[in-house]
Design brief:
The complex is a heterodimer of chains A (271) and B (463). Chain A is an alpha/beta fold and 271 residues long. Chain A has helices spanning 2-17, 62-68, 99-105, 120-131, 137-150, 154-157, 170-182, 200-213, 226-232, 250-255, 260-266, and strands at residues 22-33, 36-47, 51-55, 79-87, 90-91, 106-109, 188-192, 218-222, 235-240, 243-249. In chain A, the strands form two sheets. Chain A has a six-stranded mixed sheet, with helices on both faces. Classes of the chains: A alpha/beta (271), B mainly alpha (463). The complex binds adenosine-5'-triphosphate and magnesium ion. Adenosine-5'-triphosphate binds at residues 33, 36, 38, 58-64, 76 of chain A.
């Protein structure tokens, strides 16, 4: 608890001294799956060192939007994205951009923990290996250990780094996936409902972790839990039927939303 | 007669079913919640109770009537038959039956005529007894079945238990048949090893069963038999051809599977997969003549072009064609396992910035490896058991060689040649086929067991 307030004061101090930097910007983002349009003219900015929460009823396009941010939608044949999305002011859909580099910079954690059927060590070492981030074994080990530490998993698994990652509990698996994402030193981490498969205790642990990670990374999180959005995020974006309804500071959204749809949704009257 | 009785029982079955269910319905006054089991179960109960005992009697009679009648006739004519040998008695009975029930009669005499009359009498009485018994059993079944019907009767339990026993009986037939085949293999093999020493067979280097009999006839001593029944050349030939086949099929099949599962568009996939699978449906004889008429001469041509001596039937030709034959096994099974690697693993890898080929090489294939291994093992066991292609393309010469350009032969081919034509059933030559069959059975069984074990282990990983 103490740590959280500390981090918050630090954040507040920073906001005071320099304006927040726009890490990613989406402008007039339209997405079609075949003939069906899933997103309509979404303008949404992601600020550096903040947690941005995406909320909204099921099927409103949250996953679709978050998957645009690291071009995961490229893997779906029928999916077409138009509009402009930038990372540090460079268009990520520019043909010159290599998706492999992009995804190394914009990492992703999925709804269901999906550790590879390899050892815990190999799971984390996977990313650094393919990107050639280490020159030798000691460096690789260092990356793995620090990533696991940052993900708050190291203490629990340090004696069994070479056992299967699939043998961990659901919450540990999800933190392993976060460690795996951190290991390639991304700048942005996308999380699509990272806690929906976890129990409340594991969820609390992951939420704490997200709050700690904010210091060094920019985070976008999709969640169905209003409490979670309120707890971990600084900005919240509300989607409805493919439109961005409203985006603002989380406090404002939850205390004084502009749009009645947002009001209905967060108070549970949506239906 | 039996046919009409079975027909009658079948009709009775449906009548009893209808009667039972309507009666149950009437007992409950249309309110099914009063019944322990739904009316259809009561119907099934009555139908089973009425017909099954009678059916059992019929089946018993159908299976054993011949033997029983024979026994009775033999014992009645014991004095006349006393001085005859068993084959003679059998011949007499056969003719007597033919006279009585119609058929081709060898020659008639008084004894046979007398026996035939007894056959007719006995069979007529027996038929009446059976009919009476069947009728009595049906009536009894109906009486007790109807009497035991009540609202609380557990008809469903009865019917379901009966269904379970039927299922058990069916699987027992399958299992017992297999066991029977294996035992007859083992039994005949044991007889073979009485004639030919075990080690001479398994480790002997010389295989020429034909020559043994041409030269020495039945007087061939055990020592000679040991010398001509050395199976190592056959094992070596099988191994060589299988190795060539796997060498062809494994890379092609695997890469085709990777392409189909991860790169091909859905349209191409929907066409290519069935086409590949029809390769598996081509009769092996067709592959065989393709191998013998096209591939073998072509290889011979090329070989001679570069100055190699190639026999017109070669292990290479057979192996290549067999490899093509098992490509669909490898590709189709591997495609299935590669597809069953969860999509989330691929996304996880792509989300870390891995390229598609990195994802396939480092995540998908390792995850699918056990399944791929078992696919390969199944393909191998298929290749080991394959006969037609080898008969046609690799020849019959039992050469002990690892040169793929020479003619070799395999275990299966030798089994065929040993059993083709007229055979004495207990010559060493015929029995050798059983020994080879047993060896083959052990090899494929081992391969299949390993493959299954590997697949099971793999299943546990994701479920
Ligand atoms: N692969 C796809 N093919 C076709 N349509 C899709 C695909 N993925 C998503 N859609 C459609 O796009 C719309 C938005 O889906 P999306 O998954 O982004 O919703 P979501 O907000 O993440 O919902 P949830 O909260 O249930 O995860 C939905 O109408 C969905 O049917
Ligand atoms: Mg979603």
């Amino acid at each position: 608890m103490n740590m959280m307030t500390e981090a918050e004061t630090k954040m507040a101090g920073e906001t005071d001294s320099k304006p927040l930097n726009k890490k990613m910007q989406g402008e007039k983002v339209n997405v079609h799956y075949g003939d069906k349009q899933a997103l309509f003219d979404v303008d949404l900015d992601i600020y550096e060192n903040q947690v941005t929460a995406l909320i909204g009823p099921s099927g409103c396009g949250k996953s679709t939007f978050i998957r645009c941010l690291n071009r995961m939608n490229d893997t779906i044949d029928i999916c077409r994205v138009s509009g402009e999305i930038t990372l540090d002011n460079r268009d990520i859909y520019d043909p010159d951009i290599d998706v492999v580099d992009l995804r190394a910079r914009v990492g992703m954690v999925f709804q269901k923990p999906n550790p590879f059927p390899k050892s815990i060590f190999e799971n984390v070492a996977y990313g650094p290996r393919i990107h050639g981030l280490s020159r030798n074994k000691t460096e690789l080990e260092e990356i793995v250990v620090t990533s696991l530490q940052k993900a708050g998993l190291y203490e629990e698994v340090k004696d069994r780094l070479h056992e299967a990652g699939t043998g961990l509990s659901g919450g540990q698996q999800q933190r392993l996936c976060i460690a795996r994402a951190i290991a390639v030193s991304p700048e942005v981490i996308l999380m699509d409902e990272p806690c929906s498969a976890l129990d409340p205790i594991a969820t609390a642990r992951v939420e704490e972790l997200i709050d700690e990670l904010r210091e060094n990374y920019t985070i976008v999180i999709v969640t169905h839990s209003m409490q979670q959005a309120a707890r971990v995020s600084q900005r919240t974006a509300m989607f409805h039927l493919g439109y961005l309804v409203e985006v603002d500071e989380t406090d404002t959204i939850f205390t004084n939303p502009n749009n009645p749809k947002t009001q209905d949704y967060i108070t549970g009257r949506y239906g | 007669m039996i046919f009409y009785l079975v027909l009658a029982l079948a009709i009775l079955f449906f009548v009893a079913y209808y009667f039972g269910s309507t009666r149950a319905n009437a007992m409950a006054g249309g309110d099914h919640s009063k019944l322990h089991s739904r009316p259809s179960y009561h119907g099934g109960y009555l139908a089973l109770v009425v017909t099954v005992p009678a059916l059992a009697v019929l089946i018993f009679w159908g299976l054993f009537s011949g033997t029983i009648l024979d026994r009775m006739v033999t014992s009645e004519f014991a004095t006349q038959l006393a001085d005859k040998s068993i084959p003679e008695i059998e011949a007499i009975l056969r003719d007597a039956r033919a006279i009585a029930f119609g058929g081709i009669v060898g020659f008639r005499d008084e004894l046979k005529e007398a026996a035939a009359i007894r056959y007719e009498e006995l069979s007529a009485t027996a038929t009446w007894i059976v009919v009476a018994l069947v009728a009595a059993l049906c009536a009894l079944g109906l009486y007790f079945g109807v009497r035991s019907m009540s609202l609380r009767m557990r008809a469903r339990h009865f019917v379901e238990r009966f269904a379970i026993s039927l299922l058990i009986a069916c699987s027992a037939v399958a299992i017992l048949t297999t066991i029977g085949i294996v035992f007859s293999l083992i039994f005949e093999t044991a007889r073979f090893f009485q004639k030919v020493p075990f080690f001479d067979f398994l480790f002997g280097l010389h295989w020429s069963p034909q020559s043994a009999f041409e030269a020495a006839g039945d007087q061939a001593s055990d020592k000679d038999l040991g010398l001509v029944f050395g199976a190592v050349p056959l094992f070596a030939g099988t191994l060589l051809i299988t190795a060539i086949a796997i060498f062809v099929a494994a890379p092609i099949g695997l890469m085709a599977a990777i392409y189909l599962s991860d790169y091909a568009g859905p349209k191409f996939r929907s066409i290519a997969k069935p086409v590949l699978e029809t390769l598996a449906g081509i009769p092996t004889v067709v592959y065989g003549f393709f191998a013998a008429l096209t591939v073998a001469p072509a290889i011979r041509g090329w070989g001679e072009g570069i100055g190699l001596s190639v026999s017109s039937e070669s292990a290479l030709a057979a192996g290549l064609v067999m490899g093509i034959m098992i490509i669909p096994f490898v590709s189709s099974l591997s495609d299935d396992v590669i597809n069953s690697v969860p999509q989330s693993l691929r996304e996880g890898s792509a989300g870390l910035g891995a390229t598609k080929s990195e994802t396939i090489r480092k995540v998908v294939l390792p995850a699918a490896l056990p399944g791929i291994v078992s696919a390969l093992l199944l393909a191998i066991s298929r290749a080991v058991g394959e006969t037609m292609i080898v008969v046609m393309a690799a020849g019959l010469a039992a050469n002990l060689t690892i040169n793929p350009l020479e003619a070799v032969t395999t275990v299966t081919v030798q089994i065929v040649t040993l059993l083709v034509g007229d055979q004495e059933f207990d010559s060493a030559k015929t029995l050798a086929a059983f020994a080879l069959g047993l060896v083959l059975f052990c090899i494929t069984l081992a391969l299949n067991v390993i493959a299954l074990k590997v697949v099971q282990k793999y299943r546990e990983q994701y479920d």
